[in-house]
């Protein structure tokens, strides 16, 4: 698994390449926790290049999203496809995590949420 980090409109964007599973989900958790320690409470996770994600990866995303909500932040997911989309559907994760077609739409959603609370 390779993780790329960037930002747009003060939103942290984490792009993952490769499988997310029990063996490397902690690496993703550590990056998300680091963002929160740095007071970055708006995060988009791009899963476009993730062919497989098990329950530990999904659990990591959901846990981060609930932690971020404590700080009035949020986590959005984008570009979910294939077996990852199937796992999201089967586990009901779409009712917990907001999933967007593109990174741009996910970022825009967070910016709009921020502006509506200001």
Automatic annotation (TrEMBL):
Xref: InterPro entries: Anti-sigma_ant (IPR003658), STAS_dom (IPR002645), STAS_dom_sf (IPR036513)
GO MF entry, a single one: anti-sigma factor antagonist activity
Top-rank lineage group of the source organism: Bacteria
Entry-linked Pfam families: STAS (PF01740)
Stretches assigned to the STAS domain: 1-110
Gene3D superfamilies named in the record: STAS domain (3.30.750.24)
Assigned protein family: Belongs to the anti-sigma-factor antagonist family.
Full protein name: Anti-sigma factor antagonist
Species this chain originates from: Leptospira bourretii
Lineage of source species: Bacteria, Pseudomonadati, Spirochaetota, Spirochaetia, Leptospirales
């Amino acid at each position: 698994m390779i993780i790329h980090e960037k930002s747009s409109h003060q939103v942290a964007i984490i792009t993952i390449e490769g499988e997310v599973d029990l063996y490397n989900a902690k690496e993703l958790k550590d990056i998300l926790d680091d963002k929160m320690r740095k007071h970055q409470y708006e995060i988009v996770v791009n899963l476009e290049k993730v062919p497989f994600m098990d329950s530990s990866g999904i659990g990591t995303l959901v846990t981060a999203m609930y932690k971020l909500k404590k700080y009035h932040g949020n986590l959005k997911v984008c570009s979910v496809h294939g077996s990852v989309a199937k796992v999201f559907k089967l586990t009901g994760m779409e009712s917990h995590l907001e999933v967007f077609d593109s990174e741009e739409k996910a970022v825009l959603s967070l910016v709009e949420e921020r502006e509506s609370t200001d």
